């Protein structure tokens, strides 16, 4: 998700609140050991090793203490210190000493920040004013009086390893939300409440769409029949759109020799995120593939190509595997096993604009069908870190200039993001916005001059000479599994008719109408409507309530009156009773799928 609050003042307030949190912790737990307390989107956190587990009651105590310090109007002031002085000041704080060692090694200046003023004398008749000292790079307000005491809230407790390394000590992370005004905080808390109600992990369980199993492993989802129905609908839509613009589907293996990824460049840039596979009969290094592009180069390279053969366009929906850290996994939106509606176009330079337009056209149509708004981001390489990318400066200059020109000529408004390019080339990313304004990167179109060069791909031109094709990587909605998770939250589980796993549920009032209800089920099923019959011996009211909780688009209620007239009583999700209709009329009224 994209960070939207970039106020430097808001960040200064959040950073200062992190110090007040650490101070309040030490007041209650003097033996606590402090880690780091950075600013994050919408707030801050602090990683701390406590002498015992803490609870939500502790958070309430910390909040009370923090508000008391705000009321004291404490000054906040920075001071440069030597490594020796820093080590002396934090001699009882091992994590701070570890940070000092890192700063010294990297030749970075050391600063400490004072919150309040140290008391030199103690007046037994009055409490000492608050004082806290922390190792910090800065970015603070000047006085705690600048903080609105009603505009922050300690949110939750989580676990975190020191420096993010599972081999290090596990600390307790306390998260806080903070804004400049109470109105902003209240709005954010309301947003979080709505986001929780839309959480695809919760809805996935409630609607019986997918599960995770410890025996299978983290980040490896198992899709139920209902979930598989939706996932296949998403994939089939992408397949149909691929066919429309001339892509042919291929199938490539899940495991590949390491040499393939060494040539493509993924081995050097990406190997820590790849799963290794071991053969019982060979010492060669194999990997589960994290992407499809290297395999597609080998299909291209399998025979001699002419300029008349281009463009060659391959689509691939194979499962991919990436060794994500367990703490970074998140339902369906961050997985270890997933597919992509992936495509690679090998073309001549004079064909780039046309192929770009074809892909962009279907992306726009598909996102409209899903009801997602979006904006375009031009992702370029980080010119200050060129070693992170493959290829010569001239190649990057050419590809980046060309992609920018394509966007400008098509009058596409875009944002520029330096450092977000793929390591082999620049890309145009589509950032979709869901129903509550959250942003998700979905589609992408990438220009790649590097991989064809590394694999020595060629075609014979009209001039009889050898030429290098350009490779256009593209994804229509990205990962269908990730899009599934996004859409669950976007629709709040109430899928449009064409995506709903059960589109119509027939509710029989009693056993006397079961034969007619079965006939209606067969008639609807013959038109490819996904229909279920509830023939349980339960009240119709209970059946309606349960079906509505499953968010089924249409309910058909059949009693003796409907049977006698060969009609059905229709109830539409969100609209209630729609009256009595013939089967033919009902089929005419239900919405169709997007054009494919």
TrEMBL record:
Instruction: Give the Enzyme Commission number.
Output: 6.1.1.3
One matching Pfam family is HGTP_anticodon
Q: Which residues form the Aminoacyl-transfer RNA synthetases class-II family profile domain?
A: 239-496
Source organism per entry reads: Candidatus Ryanbacteria bacterium RIFCSPHIGHO2_01_FULL_48_27
**Record's HAMAP family?**
Thr_tRNA_synth
Record bears the keyword Transmembrane: no
| Predominant subcellular localization, coarse grouping | cytoplasm
Q: Does the keyword Disulfide bond apply?
A: no
Please list the cofactors this protein needs: Zn(2+)
PANTHER family in alphabetical order: THREONINE--TRNA LIGASE, CHLOROPLASTIC_MITOCHONDRIAL 2, THREONINE-TRNA LIGASE
Q: How is the cofactor bound?
A: Binds 1 zinc ion per subunit.
Where is this chain's protein located in or outside the cell?
Answer: Cytoplasm
| Coiled-coil residue windows | none
Q: Where Zn(2+) is bound, by residue?
A: 293, 344, 473
Listed GO molecular functions? ATP binding; metal ion binding; threonine-tRNA ligase activity; tRNA binding
Family classification: Belongs to the class-II aminoacyl-tRNA synthetase family.
Which reaction(s) does the protein catalyse, per the Swiss-Prot or TrEMBL entry? tRNA(Thr) + L-threonine + ATP = L-threonyl-tRNA(Thr) + AMP + diphosphate + H(+)
Q: What keywords are annotated for this sequence in UniProt?
A: Aminoacyl-tRNA synthetase, ATP-binding, Cytoplasm, Ligase, Metal-binding, Nucleotide-binding, Protein biosynthesis, RNA-binding, tRNA-binding, Zinc
One GO cellular-component annotation of the UniProt record comes to: cytoplasm
Lineage of producing organism: Bacteria, Candidatus Ryaniibacteriota
Provide the protein name. Threonine--tRNA ligase
Kindly state the subunit structure of this protein: Homodimer.
> InterPro entries this protein is in?
aa-tRNA-synt_IIb, aa-tRNA-synth_II, aa-tRNA-synth_II/BPL/LPL, Anticodon-bd, Anticodon-bd_dom_sf, Thr-tRNA-ligase_IIa, Thr/Ala-tRNA-synth_IIc_edit, ThrRS_anticodon
- GO biological process per UniProt: threonyl-tRNA aminoacylation
């Amino acid at each position: 998700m994209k960070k939207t609050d970039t106020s430097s003042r808001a960040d200064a307030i959040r950073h200062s609140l992190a110090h007040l949190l650490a101070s309040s912790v030490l007041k209650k737990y003097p033996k606590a050991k402090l880690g780091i307390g950075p600013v994050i989107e919408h707030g801050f956190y602090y990683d701390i090793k406590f002498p015992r587990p803490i609870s939500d009651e502790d958070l309430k105590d910390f909040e009370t203490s923090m508000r008391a310090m705000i009321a004291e109007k404490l000054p906040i002031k920075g001071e440069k210190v030597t490594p020796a002085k820093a080590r002396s000041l934090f001699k009882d704080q091992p994590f701070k000493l570890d940070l000092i060692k890192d700063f010294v090694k990297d030749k970075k200046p050391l600063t400490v920040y004072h919150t309040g003023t140290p008391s030199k004398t103690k007046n037994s008749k009055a409490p000492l004013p608050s004082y806290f000292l922390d190792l910090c790079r800065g970015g603070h307000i000047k006085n705690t009086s600048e903080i609105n005491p009603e505009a922050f809230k300690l949110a939750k407790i989580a676990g975190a390893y020191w420096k993010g390394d599972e081999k290090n000590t596990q600390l307790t992370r306390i998260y806080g939300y903070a804004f400049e005004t109470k109105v902003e905080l209240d709005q954010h808390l309301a947003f979080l409440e709505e986001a929780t109600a839309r959480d695809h992990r919760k809805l996935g369980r409630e609607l019986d769409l997918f599960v995770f199993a410890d025996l299978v492993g983290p980040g490896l989802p198992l899709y139920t029949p209902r979930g598989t129905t939706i996932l296949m609908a998403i994939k089939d839509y992408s397949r149909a759109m691929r066919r429309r613009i001339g892509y042919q589907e291929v199938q490539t293996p899940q495991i590949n020799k390491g040499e393939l990824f060494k040539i493509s460049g993924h081995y050097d840039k990406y190997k820590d995120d790849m799963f290794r596979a071991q053969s019982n009969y060979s010492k060669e290094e194999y990997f589960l593939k994290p992407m499809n592009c290297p395999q597609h180069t080998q299909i291209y390279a399998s025979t001699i190509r002419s300029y008349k053969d281009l463009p060659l366009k391959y689509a691939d929906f194979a499962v991919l595997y990436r060794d994500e850290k367990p703490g970074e996994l998140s339902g369906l939106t961050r997985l270890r096993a997933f597919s992509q509606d992936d495509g690679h176009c090998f073309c001549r330079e004079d064909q780039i604009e046309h192929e770009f337009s074809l892909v962009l056209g279907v992306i726009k149509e598909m996102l409209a069908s899903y009801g997602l708004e979006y904006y375009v981001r031009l992702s370029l390489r980080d010119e200050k870190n060129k070693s992170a990318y493959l290829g010569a400066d001239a190649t990057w200059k050419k590809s980046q200039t060309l992609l920018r020109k394509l966007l400008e000529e098509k009058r596409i408004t875009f944002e520029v993001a330096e450092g977000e390019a793929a390591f082999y080339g620049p890309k145009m990313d589509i950032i979709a916005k869901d129903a509550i304004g959250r942003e998700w990167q979905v589609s992408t179109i990438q220009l790649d001059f590097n991989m064809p060069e590394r694999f020595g791909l060629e075609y014979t031109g009209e001039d009889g000479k050898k030429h290098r094709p350009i490779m256009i990587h593209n994804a229509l909605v990205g990962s269908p599994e990730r899009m599934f998770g996004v859409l669950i939250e976007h629709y709040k589980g109430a899928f449009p008719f064409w995506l709903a796993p059960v589109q119509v549920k027939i509710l029989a009032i009693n056993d006397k109408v079961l034969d007619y209800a079965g006939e209606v089920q067969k008639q609807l099923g013959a038109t490819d409507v996904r229909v279920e019959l509830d023939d349980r011996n339960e009240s119709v009211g209970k059946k309606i309530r349960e079906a509505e909780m499953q968010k089924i688009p249409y309910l058909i209620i059949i009693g003796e009156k409907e049977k006698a007239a060969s009609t059905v009583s229709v109830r539409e999700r969100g609209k209630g009773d729609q009256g009595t209709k013939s089967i033919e009329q009902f089929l005419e009224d239900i919405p169709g799928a997007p054009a494919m």
